[in-house]
Amino acid sequence: MKLGISIKIDVKKIIKERLYQGVKGTYLDLTTFIDIDNEDTYGNNGIIFQSVSKEEREQGVKTPILGNVKVFSKQDTSTSHTTQTPEQSNDDDDIPF
């Protein structure tokens, strides 16, 4: 299954001390929980946090919710056919592709 997911975060809530320098840039580890079968009041399917280490979790360290995720597309890749909407169908039989 393929999912199209929209992600929105409030960059003001990022804990800057958690940014780290990598070989190709500055990085931020995030964690998200997604429930594709349920939506909240605003149509979101999940939330995004800054990641914490196992040791930090054991110490009770919490980070703020940075944002939300919304599943906008679901595609079942187990079938070999593609479902088209009426706008996508083409009635021209002369086109070879």
What does this protein look like?
This protein is mainly beta and 97 residues long. It has one domain (2-75). It contains 1 helix and 6 strands; from the N terminus they run E-E-E-E-E-H-E. It has one helix at 54-58, and strands at 2-9, 20-21, 26-27, 30-34, 46-50, 65-75. The strands form 2 sheets. The chain has a 4-stranded antiparallel beta sheet, with no helix packed on it. A two-stranded antiparallel ribbon has the order 2-3. The chain is globular and about 45 Å long.
Taken as a percent bin, the fraction of beta residues is: 25-35%
Low-confidence stretches: 80-97
Q: What is the molecular shape?
A: globular
Mean pLDDT: 83
Radius of gyration: 20 Å
Number of H- or I-type helical stretches: 1
Structural class based on helices, strands and sheet pairing: mainly beta
Helix content: under 10%
Number of strands: 6
| Secondary-structure element string | EEEEEHE
Q: Numbering strands along the chain, what is their spatial order in the largest sheet?
A: 1-6-5-4
Number of domains: 1
